[in-house]
Amino acid sequence: MSTLSTETATAGGGAPPAVSLAARTRGLRKLYRSTVAVDHVDLDVPAGAVLGMLGPNGSGKTTTIRMLLGLVRPTAGEVELLGHAMPDEAGKALPDVGALVEGPGFHPFLSGRENLHRLAAAEPRLSTSDIPGAVDGALERVNLTDAANRRYRGYSLGMKQRLGLAAALLVPRRMVVLDEPTNGLDPAGTREIRKIIAELHASGVTVVVSSHLLAEVEATCTHVAVLHAGTVVAQGELEELLNSGSPALLVSTPDTEKAIETLRESRIPSRLTPEGIRADLSTSSAPEVLEILVKAGVPVYEARRARTGLEDVFARLTQDEPVDEEAGR
Asked: Mind giving me the DSSP string for 26-59?
């Protein structure tokens, strides 16, 4: 496993600084008869982080989340959530956790507001007098006020997702877990979810997001955990993960053919991308690349350090499996 966070030693060989964790697993394993769904997962969720969980179909993300929340008992291993052992101490941890896992489930013949009232009545930290205000606030936060009195069975998939998110936000939480929160949402709804996640992060709430939309994870998350074949293959800060690939320089020039030919003659791997010529810096430096191009008479309009996209990192870590719209469940 590639770990880019608290378990990585410092350059001097000493131990890294301690990081407060909102959740952690050690040796987590789950078997369904002879099928291994999760295999020795060691996961760290830093307090206050927005952690994106990524993985191809069958990678174990949803099963890991369910064990993290105490919905499924592990076959082996340890789970700790907000300092409490799960699932035995779920009653102590879960009041501080809001979750939307594998899609919302509500009574179809009740309205959105009535469904939330029923859930709010079960919240241990909401008094009866506080329920109407909490429900109205949650509906407004997910922009569902106008449809609050419609029956749930008439909701679109996106509206059902919004109501599920509203249920997770009925009371202030220390941690929010969202499984595919933008499923069924249009671009405007996706932006609203992104805004809510940003607000939760700004207020110090820890957020765990499972998503197959790599662009959304890259836009909203501070940390990433990549699962493959039931185990964590990489985890840590998003910036570190994006910078973990081969260094490269992006060069903008009108003469792309000559630029690539010149660089390859100098044994510098290069290729044409939508952003420009991507020159590999594994065996050379940026000044050397630019000097070679200029001496060859190649006009250089712009040059900047290339950033590895999350899709490229994801494909590399999952053995170059295709990234499609269903990846990550």
From this structure: EEEEEEETTEEEEEEEEEEEETT-EEEEE--TTS
Judgement on whether residues 170 and 265 belong to the same structural domain of the protein: no
Say if residue 10's pLDDT is above 50.
no
Q: Measured at the alpha carbon of residue 213, what is the angle toward residues 211 and 218, in degrees to the nearest 5?
A: 95
Q: Of 161, 91, 75, 81, nearest to 124 (Cα)?
A: 91
As a whole number of angstroms, the distance between CA 67 and CA 56 comes to: 19
Tell me the residue range of the domain where 25 lies: 2-242
Structure tokens at 131: 């329920």
**DSSP characters over 192-238:** HHHHHHHHHHHTT-EEEEE-S-HHHHHHH-SEEEEEETTEEEEEEEH
Tokens of 217: 């994870």
Please give the backbone phi and psi of residue 127, each rounded to the nearest 5 degrees, phi first: -80, 160
Give the angle 159-63-77 at the CA atoms, nearest 5°: 145
Q: What is the total count of domains within the chain?
A: 2
Domain shared by 223 and 161, yes or no:
yes
Of 80, 79, 35, the closest CA to residue 60 belongs to 35
249-266 pLDDT, tens per residue? 999 999 999 999 999 999
Contact between 3 and 231 under an 8 Å Cβ cutoff? The reply is no
pTM: 0.76
Contact by Cβ (8 Å): 23, 193? no
